[in-house]
Amino acid sequence: MTSSDTLPIPRLASPADAHEHAWLVESRHPTSEGVVLYVRCAGCDSRRVDLAPRAEMPPTALSRAVVTPSAR
């Protein structure tokens, strides 16, 4: 059942989507699929995992950006 009196639920943007990330490589590991890169955003400390299948190709994201909880 649908109703014309309801509003759509807004999609909440995650803090990881708030800006253009500047990814820095924290570590890299060669695998049979290419080089796996563990990267961190210089601005917000979000992290994700990338894969560079070949040296001449840019890396692609294997995971979503995950915001690291701040240490208190």
Characterization of this structure:
It is built from no helices and 4 strands. Strands 1-2-3-4 form a 4-stranded antiparallel β-sheet, with no helix packed on it. It is an all-beta fold. The N and C termini lie far apart (47 Å). It has a domain of 42 residues.
Q: Summary?
A:
The protein is an all-beta fold and 72 residues long. The protein has strands at residues 23-31, 34-41, 47-52, 60-61. It has a four-stranded antiparallel β-sheet with strand order 1-2-3-4, with no helix packed on it.
Count every beta strand, where a strand is a DSSP E run of 2 or more residues.
4
Rg result:
17 Å
Number of helices: 0
Shape: elongated
Q: Give a short account of the largest sheet.
A: 4 strands, antiparallel
Portion of residues in helices? under 10%
Q: Biggest sheet, strands in spatial order? A: 1-2-3-4
Structural class, from helix and strand content? Answer: mainly beta
C-alpha end-to-end distance: 47 Å
Rounded average pLDDT:
83
What is the N-to-C order of secondary-structure elements (H for helix, E for strand)? Answer: EEEE
Instruction: List unreliable stretches of 5+ residues.
Output: none
Instruction: Give the amount of beta strand, in percent.
Output: 25-35%
